[in-house]
Amino acid sequence: MHHKNLLEINDCGIYCPQADVYIDPWKPVNKALITHAHGDHSRWGNKFYLAHRQSEAVMRLRLGADINLQTVAYGEQIIINGVRISYHPAGHITGSAQIRLEYGGQVWVASGDYKTEQDKTCTPFEPVRCHTFITESTFGLPIYSWRPEAEIFAEMNAWWRSNRELGFSTLVCGYSLGKAQRIIANADPEIGPILLHGAVHNVTEALRQDGLQLPPTRRLTSDTPKELIRGSLVVAPPSALNTPWMRKLQPVRTAMASGWMNLRGAKRRRAVDRGFVLSDHADWQGLNEAIRQTGAQQVLVTHGYTAAFSRWLQSQGYDAREVQTLYTGELGELQEVDEGASEAE
């Protein structure tokens, strides 16, 4: 018996006709299932939202306290018009989920964004068995291979300690939702105080509200005493780089934490002293391993290196193809820098 596809892509997003719901729609719809709270996946204007409970406070912060939002735990099942829907850990950021849909003997999983490396700020990625897997490919080329985060954070803390001894404050820029909290969670509070740019502070407080455990931090304001700033670690979004806001940090050493620091020239272009290769997305090996563990035969590639990655999957025997979506993956981080102070106080 021939089934219509359980999910299809139309001009609003990833659509499930049987349940009449969308996954991470980019235009306003009636019912939106949200994988995680990043702006390219969780947009304003939907009539109803379903998300993981650890996304609640941050989604209300970004989209408005009054959005019509229902939340679920990982593994909890919701049935809409016969379609069984459940959320499973994606390991991307706090509250991020892969969404599993089952109907008429078909199982589809939409990954949203994911990473396979364990990280203190989120429930570890769990492979979900399915017939069709919709995957991202933000870093879907063999040149992307991440070092263990423990090594990266050991380097970052050593650099902060040495800056402090030399009388500098240390500014590390990372996306204000996800990357920033990972930096905070792994910073060594014995070295000195951890201060947050307003945009990072607001998101961090929302995530604490949803249960995220982090070392103590303070919001950096115009009243923060100079002697507290000197030698401190300051966490800010990339958009704060080279803006007047940075004056109060002088003398300062600067760094950017991003998967894109892997590319030669990216660090130099962004005029920072250090680049730490740290991504909230799976690297080449992580993507391949995750896809293998789903057991899926059909793979749809939504964003990143879609053409190259889907060709590679075809060569490995998968029924793979790229689909056009409006998700940006970690490119959002680069745009945030280039557009200047989009998230400044």
Number of strands: 19
Which homologous superfamily in CATH is the superfamily of the largest domain? Ribonuclease Z/Hydroxyacylglutathione hydrolase-like
Distance between the termini: 57 Å
- What is the percentage of strand-forming residues? 15-25%
Question: How much helical structure, as a percent, in the residues?
Answer: 10-25%
Query: What is the helix/strand order?
Result: EEEEEHEEEEEEHEHEHEHEEHEHEHEH
CATH architecture of the largest domain: 4-Layer Sandwich
Structural class: alpha/beta
CATH topology (fold) name of the largest domain: Metallo-beta-lactamase, Chain A
Low-confidence stretches: 335-345
Number of continuous helical runs: 9
- Mean pLDDT across all residues, rounded? 92
Strand order of the largest sheet: 7-8-9-10-11-18-19
For the report, how would you describe the main beta sheet? Answer: 7 strands, mixed
Overall shape: it is globular
Q: Roughly how many Å is the radius of gyration?
A: 20 Å
The first-level CATH class name of the largest domain: Alpha Beta
InterPro entries: MBL, RibonucZ/Hydroxyglut_hydro, Xnuc_lig_assoc
Organism: Cesiribacter andamanensis AMV16
Protein name: F0F1-type ATP synthase, epsilon subunit
GO molecular function: RNA endonuclease activity
Q: What does this molecule look like?
A:
With 345 residues, this protein is of the alpha/beta class. The chain has 2 domains: 8-143 and 280-338, Metallo-beta-lactamase, Chain A (4-Layer Sandwich); 149-276, Rossmann fold (3-Layer(aba) Sandwich). The protein has 9 helices and 19 strands. A hairpin with a 2-residue loop joins strand 1 and strand 2. The N and C termini lie far apart (57 Å).
